[in-house]
Amino acid sequence: MHLGIVLETNDPERVWNAFRLANTALESDHFVEMFLLGDGVEAPDREHQQFNPHGLMLKYVQNDGELLACGTCLDSRDLTEDRLRPRGTMGDLLECIERADEVMTIG
Fold first, then answer.
1. Rounded to whole angstroms, how far apart are CA atoms 63 and 28?
2. What is the pTM of this model?
3. Residue 39 included in any domain
4. Cα–Cα distance between 96 and 2 in angstroms, integer?
5. Which end of the chain is more exposed for a tag (fewer CB within 10 A), N or C?
6. Which of 1, 70, 71 is nearest to 34 (CA)?
7. C-alpha span between 83 and 106 (Å, rounded)
8. How far is CA 8 from CA 1, 19, 28, 64, in A?
């Protein structure tokens, strides 16, 4: 299956759960694309005592999960792209949605 996930939150527990799902899908030989949108572009910066969203994001990227972050959302927050925030466009998001068998939004 090809799973598209749109992450629109920076809440540590929701980010953590989104990447738990994404990593589980990768480990089950599914193809996963994650698009960070809105507050989601802040997800790599979130730290939490109980949850480890940053660590799960790293694992996702290391396991060849596809990841993009909305460039306009990055610019509006004065954030620069990096390994956990590769710059993407609305066109990239549209292509992800068109390719995916299932799309879910976590916000």
1. 12
2. 0.95
3. yes
4. 9
5. N
6. 70
7. 21
8. 22, 13, 24, 21
Tell me if 82 is assigned to some domain. yes
Structural domain containing residue 87: 6-106
Tens-of-pLDDT digits for all 107 residues of the chain?
A: 999 999 999 999 999 999 999 999 999 999 999 999 999 999 999 888 899 899 999 999 999 999 999 999 999 999 999 999 999 999 999 999 999 999 999 99
Q: Which CATH number goes with the domain that contains 75?
A: 3.40.1260.10
Q: Report yes or no: 18 and 7 within 8 Å, Cβ to Cβ.
A: yes
